[in-house]
Amino acid sequence: MSCIEHISFYDNIILFPEHKHTSCEIMYLHKGNINLICEGKKYELKDGMLYIIPSGLKHTISIIDTTCYKRTLVFLNPWTYSKKYYSDYIYNALIGCSINEPIIIKDDIDCREYLDILKKEVDSTDVLSEDIIISAVTQFLAKLFRYTGLLNNHNIRKTNKLVNDIQSYIQENCGSQISISDIADKYFVSKFYLSHIFKEQTGLSPRQFLTFTRLSKAYNLLHEPDFSVSEVAEKCGFTSTSYMIKKFGEQYNISPNKFRKQLFSKSKKYAK
Q1: In terms of domains, do 135 and 118 share one?
Q2: Alpha carbon of 65 to those of 1, 36, 46, 50, 126: distances in Å?
Q3: Number of neighbouring beta carbons within 10 Å of residue 109
Q4: What is the pLDDT of residues 196-213, one digit of tens each?
Q5: Is the CB of residue 36 less than 8 Å from the CB of residue 42?
Q6: In a shared domain, residues 15 and 130
Q7: Domain boundary among 141, 157, 173
Q8: Which CATH number characterizes residue 189's domain?
Q9: What residue numbers bound the domain in which 225 lies?
Q10: What's the pLDDT band for 269 if we cut at 50, 70, 90?
Q11: Which residue has the higher pLDDT, 82 or 13?
């Protein structure tokens, strides 16, 4: 399982209701002028700018200039990435612990170069591709965070290892029919203790996080035209397609089919 869950270029103008997902969202604006609304605050982005939305933050965009809107969108899984390379600074930023706001990069500091590397390696079947992806992501993020200086002004919180391990386990196994009892047994804790410490650290119960993770994975997979909605439901561990459609509508206020129709109305898979 790659830490890059999705990367593609889009040139269609598409608006969605406010939403959130477990992935860390990275968007580079090739051309256009938009407002990013994240947790009630508005940020303006123009050509050559990039934003990073940490996991779990509510966000949406509004188009200021409707004549041109071209962007590359990346979904990065913080837990899969942190299993290969762990840094308290980077991990806390990606999951929104130390920086509970979008990270805005106003200047193009080799963003296109790193995005091209990631796209090439995601499409590759080479056994070393994931190592190159981890290296490129680490360099990219470290360079961005150093450039912004944001991490210098935030306290780095040590996350609970048990909660972190369970989040990683849920991320990796959400496509299977796992239960909270199974998870508690695996980590030799009671369901009560698991629920208590998990809610304390994340604000969600383990069951809520499992559903959120499945919906986030579905949101990402719907960006891939090769999978049908029923295949997406199966890959995400939903007991039925109709149940995924129901939960997706509750979370994102749009049906999976309508979401996909709008997404691919005239977008290209990737472009320079």
Answers
A1: yes
A2: 37, 13, 10, 17, 40
A3: 15
A4: 999 888 888 999 999 999
A5: yes
A6: yes
A7: 157
A8: 1.10.10.60
A9: 161-259
A10: very low
A11: 82
